[in-house]
## 1
Amino acid sequence: MESLERILKEHPFFASFPPEHLQLVTGCARNHRFKAGEYLFHEGEQADEFFLVRDGKVALEICAPGKAPIVFETVAGGNVAGSSWLVPPYRWMFDARALEPARAIGIDAACLRRKSEADPSLGYVLMKSILPILVERLQAARLQILDVYGRGH
Amino acid sequence: MKPALQTTDPFLPELYRVEHTVRELADTVTLEFKPLSGARASFTPGQFNMIYVFGVGEAAISISGDPADGRMFVHTVREVGAISNAIAKLEAGAVAGIRGPFGTGWPVAAAEGLDILIVAGGLGLAPLRPAIYHILAHRERYGRVAILFGSRSPADLLYRHELEQWRQRLDIDIAVTVDHADRSWHGNVGVVPSLIPRASFDPAQTLAMVCGPEIMMRYSATGLLQAGIPAERVYLSMERNMKCAIGLCGHCQFGPDFVCKDGPVFNYSKIAKILAVREI
């Protein structure tokens, strides 16, 4: 059986984590398997656990009243689903649904936040990993809003 | 492959008859043009023709057909203005004028021996399709081949049937993403650059060909460089308002170059500095 620490180490998100920090994170982690169609989390719920997708594909979707849900991003293996666990009030802003059978590492967000407060060097390494992802997603969201394939372009 | 030498007046259109049309999308049509006499000129993937609808005007349209099929020119046209609307409305049997082919092509010969990354967005797949045909016809000359294609929504996917056929091949990787989708879509949702890290290639031995809206190309080029592909091996197809198509009128001036004559396919290292200059 694969050790959780080794699984974490192989995930791109933790690639730059020093061993001592990886060990701290491992204490907050557990394995998950999701069936196709199963939800990882729902909008409005407490963001107390976030997910590093190992394989499979997860759809992030928003539902407007009276309308069909809109998928605005898919997250594949090697990526992180969601960032609401980082900032108060720690509530999910959208739904995450497995499009196909998916394996993920769940990280207890409260546990990780607590450990980061106690050891700011862990928090710094964590921020260095999460910030490029957030910037990349911000840029991608801008591109999507621009509707570059529309007639105006 | 070198483009055919122009032996006639480059301003004089040759007459072509529309043989067949296919409605690709709500606003996009593919037309096949057969010469009224003689053979069609040879072309390099990436080149364009000037298509003249008599009484309406002339527009630059990329060639989107198979370069190995010498019977006709294939063009995919999106209805965005008076001339492109008129071209898209041409029916089988109609006669139009064609000048060309013009411009530079994709470096399909220089890419031999390398991994190939084709990055297309929206209608940008049309100018890349001849290169894809060429690469697939000479598959043994290339390393790994990946096609990354982005579109607005699943309903806007160009050449959907062909994408599905390519996807069935075992010797190329096809990744498609859309900007947004409903729940009936089980593919990727997100922007094209997000597909780059997931593609399988050796960055030091890869050549990338990129075509799509200019903003998408800028972001994609950044993503390709981040992935380790040298700027000298990233090629972009630029689009400007082309009139004469032979570098005389200046309508398509792009910094020190003319897109019609020095492009439309440019090496990224040559244009990177002016690509983000608003005035250009």
Note: The interface with chain B takes residues 57, 59-61, 68-74, 76, 78, 99-100, 136, 139-140, 143-144, 146-151, 153 of chain A (CB under 8 Å).
## 2
Amino acid sequence: MKAVVVENLKYRYPSTERLALSGVSFEVEQGEFIGIIGKNLAGKSTLCEALVGLVPHFYKGAYGGRVVVDDVEVLSSSVSELARHIGIVFQNPFTQITAAKLTVYEEVAFGLENLGFQREEMVKRIDYVLKLLGLYAYKDRNPFELSGGQMQRLAIASIIAMKPSIIVLDEPTSQLDPLGSEEVFKAVQSLSKEGITIIMVEQKMEKIAQYADKIILMHEGHLVDFGTPEEVFSRPDLESYGVEPPVFTSIAKKLGIKDNNTGLYPVTLEQMRRLMIGEPHRS
Amino acid sequence: MARALSLYVEADTFVQKLDPMVKLLYILVAILIPFVILPFRWVGAAFIVLSCLALLYARVFARVVPLLGFSFLILISIVIIQGLFMPGNKTPAINILGLTFYKEGLLYALTLCIRVLDVLLAFALLVLTTRPSDLIQSLVKRGLSPRFGYVLSSALQVIPQMMSQVGSIMDAQRSRGLETEGNLWTRLKAFLPLIGPVVMSSLLETRERAMALEVRGFSASGKKTFLYERESSTLDRVLQWTLIVVLILSIAARFVLV
Amino acid sequence: MNKKSMWSFSFSTPVLVLIPVAVGINYVGKLFAQLLKLPLWLDSIGTVIASMLSGPIVGAISGAINNIIYGLTMDPISFVYALTSVAIGLTVGIMAYRGRISNLWRAVVVGLVVALVAAVVSTPLNVIFWGGQTGNVWGDALYAYLIAHGVPVWLSSFLDELVVDLPDKVATVIIAFLIFVSLPKRLVQMYEGEEALEKLD
């Protein structure tokens, strides 16, 4: 079973004229790490919202095509039902705190209480995710007292406590300082190691190149490319889509360092180093 | 960070541990009987004494004083105004500074004071000895929509959050040249540029929070569960039935007397 | 586009998140009024904005919860005056929902009606608890003067309350109106209610 299947997805927000998404199609296998890149208003956030059902159920508007997540069709389901299969973390750590709970521990329980889990199961899951995200020491703190990075990790913990097999992250580090960003990337990496399918919108290309198995390039509502980081970042027309490749790729492009078998440029420091030494390209 | 709204005082007495619904029932009884069923001054006074005893036992009596503070000044002005001016004042009672206070007015003021204190102390008992989250959870378990339980719970933190922005907004606007002192018109004009940003940013955040709630299963159908449950104790049941019996007896007494 | 009846009882998640914020706006308004030493309460601006955004029921609930929270955390007598807050929410909702307040003058009219309604609802409460007084110095001075001159208690109390409410509620509705018209359209739509989902080919 594929984790995500998107077929010819089209969407227009209410009271707007242009399509936010025009005929997007792709598939994601379980356990994959997918990065989504593109300039502002390319449709990246809309695509994330469409995977979890906020598009169309929260916004209404005009919807066409099909999205199937974990074998559940988004259009005929609901955001709450989909929450058992797919979770999402947004940019702003502050507004993801429910404000209804006084401790980190209870905050994580919020989603589990809504979905009707039994107490013993709740405790197991909360303990597990808090330890996984390094928040167990803060379990009795008020969520609003945490730092930005900690709050974002709390958001992630609250989502994965509901045990979705897929998690979407829409620029989760854009409002964090470098330390907080690093905490979040490490957390996402450990989730990926657990086998959770990751779909992440990111502006930090070096990070995406490092972690992603595949990259989706969005532009004005269209899916322009869907391939490995090497394939996507090696595109000569990348800049016309408002995207800069990772710094190593830019350098490699200027110096003409590429893998002669595939014709692709390196996307990480490690790859570039190997190419310069003369080792064969390894993904 | 701004503290969540709560007057709860922690102490290891049975009052704190009591089911919040029993305390709510007490408030209902403390209002119905002295106000409606047996409207005599001594009945109200009896409830006042009862509430005070409970507050003392629960070790929260000291915190009652600030709660009373709001009403205290009004009560004094009531004593003065009713004592001097109540229509129907006939019998002079005391003379202070050349002003005559009348018995009818003073007795009426006493009735009002007893009523206010009765209500205040009964509520104080609930509010000082109950965690807001426990009270809300009690209500949800007995049928309040969990979505409304959320509204109440989140209000207790959202409100102090918004209030804590007030200081920095005033500083920021002042540094941009906003005049906040001077004549009435100047100060009135300053109101909108001060409250505007707070309202705007808070409302914009509500969209994000609403989406975050949705993806946490907020609108899920089916029964919600609770991380922390409390069991009903024998004392809860005993007190609950005692209050109900008292209420019934007072209604019976009313029919006997009238 | 389907328009919900103003009396519908379905509460979408954005509306539920709005209510605590409306109460917060009430609190913040009151605080700014105190800091600026204004002779007005300005403690219902949030309730009025909620009514303008989501109709009379949501406005009434915002008002009720405002008093419940205030009663639970500051002054228990507030609980009883929830009736007044509910009345304000209902009034504004009925008169103002969905942009029926089109200009400033209409806002003034709504403010006057709200002041009247608030005074009418508060007066019986004031008489029962405070013998007719309101706790406002000027209003109570007027009250004392009136009953000393033989004016019936109910009327004196009503005038006491009205003198306090007229400037306050008119100012409140005007301020709420000015804020409301500067809100981005997408935000207002979020609270408006059910749109139908359209199909795209």
Note: The two ends of chain C are 19 Å apart (CA to CA).
